[in-house]
Write a structure and sequence with these properties.
About 45% of the residues lie in helices and about 20% in strands. It is an alpha+beta fold. The protein has one domain: Arc Repressor Mutant, subunit A. The protein has a two-stranded antiparallel sheet.
């Protein structure tokens, strides 16, 4: 069983690893695994915080064919 991640930043990093996800998809991944309801705006803010730490490589791209739908991904720097 995975350890319980109590910090929102850690939950977001865990949810966005392993593929590209929209903020809504990340919200539901966090809820399914940790039973915590994080808002999409908070997830976006934590994504920006993760970029500043230097511990993660963060990617953001548009989901094709949608013009205004963004996908996010986080990878741990090794």
């Amino acid at each position: 069983m995975i350890q319980k991640l109590s910090k929102q930043k850690d939950r977001v990093a865990h949810a966005l690893q392993g593929g590209y996800y929209t903020l809504e998809e990340a919200k539901w991944r966090i809820y399914e695994e940790f039973k915590v309801r994080d808002m999409e705006t908070a997830i976006s803010a934590r994504f920006r915080d993760l970029k500043r730490t230097g511990k993660y490589t963060c990617y953001k791209r548009r989901r094709i064919p949608y013009r205004y739908l963004w996908e996010y991904r986080v990878e741990l720097v090794r």
